[in-house]
Amino acid sequence: MQLPLFREDVKISEVLIVIEPPKEIVEYIALLKKEISEEFGDFTSRYSTAHVTVNDFLVADERMKPVLSAIEKHISEFKAFSIRLNGFSSFENGNTIFVNVEVPDSYNSLIDEFEILRQEVVKTKKKNFYNSRTPHITIANQLANSSFKELKKRFSPIHFNHEFSVEKLVILKRDKNLGKFEHIGDINLKN
């Protein structure tokens, strides 16, 4: 009798830890996405709510509670900080238009802490664990080359500047690569 290489009964979820911008920014980004979609057609991020990804990883559901508890314990020790949204830019890889996010050193320290948590708590391979060292808010991605070039020209000169305080991180979860993320908790930062 041959045993399977992997347990088929292990359910894996994707966990996304994000910064939510203020409501007016979320609404503005949604409007931009709608306008782009109407002119150029749908794109991968069309219906995602505006956010700054901090961390994204896979975890077995049976380990979810202890992993999230350990993450919350470590991350809740960080102080609230401010980030500045400063204009639009693009990634050639993935034909992506996004809002630039300028972060303080404390954000980079937060990312360093997530890397330590990956090794000590989540215990997953680097390929299953993503830390955002280039924080941004995606407007549109996976665009056709012609649409990307046009939007890049259009967005580059637009002045967009907004600063807000990050007092919590939002935890979202979904079945591995399926469906919509659901809100499962928050990590409050120190004031």
Which short descriptors sum up this protein?
5-stranded antiparallel beta sheet; Cyclic Phosphodiesterase, Chain: A; alpha+beta; globular; 34% strand; 191 residues
Please give the structural blueprint.
Blueprint: E1 12-19, H1 23-40, E2 52-60, H2 61-75, E3 81-91, E4 96-102, H3 105-122, E5 129-131, E6 136-140, H4 145-155, E7 161-166, E8 168-175, E9 182-188
Antiparallel strand pairs: 1-2, 1-8, 2-5, 3-4, 3-7, 4-6, 8-9
Helix pairs in contact: 2-3
Question: CATH top level?
Answer: Alpha Beta
Helix content: 25-40%
Strand segment count: 9
Biggest sheet: strand arrangement: 5-2-1-8-9
Query: How many helices does DSSP assign?
Result: 4
User: Which spans of ≥5 residues are poorly predicted at pLDDT below 50?
Assistant: none
CATH topology (level 3) name? Cyclic Phosphodiesterase, Chain: A
SSE series: EHEHEEHEEHEEE
| Structural class designation | alpha+beta
Overall, the morphology is: globular
Give the integer mean of the pLDDT values. 92
Please report which band the strand proportion falls in: under 5%, 5-15%, 15-25%, 25-35%, 35-45% or over 45%: 25-35%
For the record, the CATH architecture stands as Alpha-Beta Complex
